[in-house]
C-alpha cells in the first residue's frame, strides 16, 4: 500500500549528495597507514597479474608511477544522471545540421580511402562517420581524463571492480604494445578513448593498424580510425548490402503485441498495412524486420533490420541506434 509521506525539501538530495561526496573524500584522503597499505597491496597484486599476462615491468612502472585514487571518478560512476530524454529530444541534440555537414565534408575529403576500406569490410562509410560524429562530435570532445588513473580508481572500487580491472589490464597491453604512452592515453572518466570512444578491450579486439605503421591511432581521421570502426561493425555481424532500417507509418488497429517483439518478412508487414514514412509501399526485399517505438504508441515508428542490432552492440539504446541510422542516411554514400 502506498503511504502518503510528506514531501521532502528539495534541498535534501543536494545535502545527501554533498555528504556522500564528502565521505568518499574523507575515507580516501585521510593518510591512514591501513588505507595506504591496502591500496599498495592491491596495486602490487595487480602488477603481478599484469606481468603474468605478458606485460613488461617497465610498462607497469610507467603506468603506476604517479597513480592515485580519485574520489571524483567514483562520484561520477555512482551518480550518473537518471533523466531520460525522449527520442525527439535526443535526435534534436545529436543529429544536427552541423554534424550532417561535417560528415558530408569528411565523406568527400576521404572518399578514396573510404572506398578502399568499404570494399574490404563491406560496411558503408557513412555509418562509421555517424558513429564518430555522435561519439565525439568528429573528434572535438574526446575526454581529458588520464585513462590509467581512472581505471585504477574504478577497478579498486567494489561496485564494478572486476569489469574495470579487466579493462585496466587491456589498457596496459595497449601501452606495452607501443600504440601510445601513458600520458597520451586520455579519455572519458570511465576509460573510453579516441574519436570512437573505444574501451581498452574494444580497442584490442577491433582496432586496426590499417596504414601498417606499427601503431594504431584512433585520435586522428586517418585509415586506422575508419578501418577500426568498420572492423568492429563487421565482426559484430554487419550484413553487407543492407541498411539499418527506416521510419514507417503504422495502420490503425495494428496488434500492439507485434511491436518490438516480432520479426516478420517485409511482405507480411506490407500486408498488415505498414507503409513507408511518405505513405508509399514497402520494398519487396527478402528481409525480415521488426518495428520499434521508443517513445511509445504515440511516438514515431521505425522498421529495423539486423544491422540495427549490430549498431546496438555499440550502445544498447534504441535512441542511439536510430540516431546513428538517421545521421548516416543524412550524410549519404559515395
Overall strand count = 7
User: Helical segment tally?
Assistant: 15
For the biggest sheet, the summary is:
5 strands, antiparallel
The whole-number mean of residue pLDDT values reads 91
Oligomer: single chain
- CATH fold title of one domain: Helicase, Ruva Protein, domain 3
- Give the helices and strands as they follow along the chain: HHHHHHHHEHHEHHEEHEEEHH
What helical percentage do the residues reach?
A: 40-55%
Amount of beta strand: 5-15%
Q: Mind explaining what this structure looks like?
A:
The protein has 334 residues and is α+β, with helices and mostly antiparallel strands. Among the domains are: 17-79 and 144-187, Helicase, Ruva Protein, domain 3; 87-142 and 196-235, no CATH class. It has helices spanning 12-29, 33-52, 57-64, 71-78, 87-94, 97-109, 111-121, 125-136, 147-156, 161-176, 200-206, 223-235, 266-271, 306-312, 318-331, and strands at 145-146, 186-187, 245-249, 264-265, 275-276, 288-292, 301-304. The strands form 2 sheets. Strands 4-6-7-3-5 form a 5-stranded antiparallel beta sheet. A hairpin with an 8-residue loop joins strand 6 and strand 7. Helix 1 (12-29) runs antiparallel to helix 4, helix 5 packs across helix 15 and helix 10 packs across helix 11 (200-206). The longest helix is centred in the N-terminal third of the chain and has 20 residues, at 33-52. The chain is globular, with a radius of gyration of 23 Å. The termini are far apart.
Amino acid at each position: 500500500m502506498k503511504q502518503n509521506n510528506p514531501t521532502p525539501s528539495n534541498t535534501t538530495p543536494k545535502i545527501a549528495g554533498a555528504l556522500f561526496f564528502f565521505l568518499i573524500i574523507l575515507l580516501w584522503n585521510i593518510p591512514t597507514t591501513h588505507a595506504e597499505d591496502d591500496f599498495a597491496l592491491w596495486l602490487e597484486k595487480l602488477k603481478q597479474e599484469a606481468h603474468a599476462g605478458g606485460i613488461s615491468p617497465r610498462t607497469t612502472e610507467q603506468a603506476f608511477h604517479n597513480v592515485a585514487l580519485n574520489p571524483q571518478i567514483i562520484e561520477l560512476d555512482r551518480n550518473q544522471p537518471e533523466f531520460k530524454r525522449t527520442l525527439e529530444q535526443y535526435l534534436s541534440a545529436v543529429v544536427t545540421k552541423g554534424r550532417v555537414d561535417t560528415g558530408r565534408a569528411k565523406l568527400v575529403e576521404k572518399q578514396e580511402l573510404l572506398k578502399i576500406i568499404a570494399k574490404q569490410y563491406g560496411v558503408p562509410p557513412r555509418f562509421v562517420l555517424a558513429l564518430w560524429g555522435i561519439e565525439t562530435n568528429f573528434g572535438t570532445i574526446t575526454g581529458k581524463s588520464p585513462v590509467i588513473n581512472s581505471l585504477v580508481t574504478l577497478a579498486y572500487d567494489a561496485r564494478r571492480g572486476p569489469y574495470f580491472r579487466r579493462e585496466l589490464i587491456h589498457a596496459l597491453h595497449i601501452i606495452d604494445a607501443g600504440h601510445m604512452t601513458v600520458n597520451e592515453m586520455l579519455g572519458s572518466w570511465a576509460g573510453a578513448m579516441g574519436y570512437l570512444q573505444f574501451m581498452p578491450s574494444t580497442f584490442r579486439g577491433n582496432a586496426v593498424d590499417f596504414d601498417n605503421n606499427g601503431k594504431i591511432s584512433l585520435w586522428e581521421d586517418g585509415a586506422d580510425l575508419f578501418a577500426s570502426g568498420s572492423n568492429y561493425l563487421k565482426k559484430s555481424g554487419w550484413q553487407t548490402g543492407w541498411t539499418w532500417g527506416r521510419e514507417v507509418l503504422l495502420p490503425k488497429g495494428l496488434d500492439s503485441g507485434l511491436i518490438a517483439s516480432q520479426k516478420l518478412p517485409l511482405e507480411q508487414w506490407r500486408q498488415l498495412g505498414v507503409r513507408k514514412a511518405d505513405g508509399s509501399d514497402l520494398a519487396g526485399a527478402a528481409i525480415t524486420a521488426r518495428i520499434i517505438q521508443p517513445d511509445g504508441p504515440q511516438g514515431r515508428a521505425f522498421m529495423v533490420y539486423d544491422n540495427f542490432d549490430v549498431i546496438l552492440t555499440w550502445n544498447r539504446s534504441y535512441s542511439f541506434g536510430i540516431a546513428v541510422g538517421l545521421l548516416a542516411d543524412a550524410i549519404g554514400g559515395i
